[in-house]
Amino acid sequence: MLEVLNYSEARKNLRQVLENAEEKGRVVIVTRKSGGKAVIISLERLNELEKAERNLRYLQMLNCSMKELEEGNVVPVSDEDLEGLSS
């Protein structure tokens, strides 16, 4: 659920805003007179978003590797070559 508050409302009700984000999983957008905006979310939600971002980067790397493989842009490596890398 999304909640939008101006800075004054958020400051006046900070305890409730934090509880809504932490316990109820709400995303709280705080707006400012200057037009700036900030978001308050739970730590759990932040961790989920960061994990999703890491997974996306990993999938993009895999897609790039698959494209290189399909285009034949590979270098053959033997088992002996790989064993030499671990030393």
Brief description of this entry?
By secondary structure, the protein is α+β, with helices and mostly antiparallel strands. It has helices at about 5-10, 15-25, 45-70, 80-85, and strands at about 1-5, 25-30, 35-40.
Structural class: alpha+beta
- Radius of gyration equals 23 Å
Relative helix content: 55-70%
- In the sheet with the most strands, the strands line up as 1-2-3
Q: Helix and strand succession?
A: EHHEEHH
Count of DSSP E strands?
3
Query: What are the segments in which pLDDT stays under 50 over at least 5 consecutive residues?
Result: none
What is the distance, rounded to the nearest whole angstrom, between the alpha carbons of the first and last residues?
53 Å
Number of H- or I-type helical stretches: 4
Strand content: 15-25%
Biggest sheet layout: 3 strands, mixed
Instruction: Quote the average pLDDT.
Output: 93
Shape: elongated
What does this structure look like?
The protein is of the alpha+beta class and 87 residues long. It has 4 helices and 3 strands, in the order E-H-H-E-E-H-H. A 3-stranded mixed β-sheet has the order 1-2-3. Strand 2 and strand 3 form a beta hairpin. It is elongated. The model has no long low-confidence stretch (mean pLDDT 93).
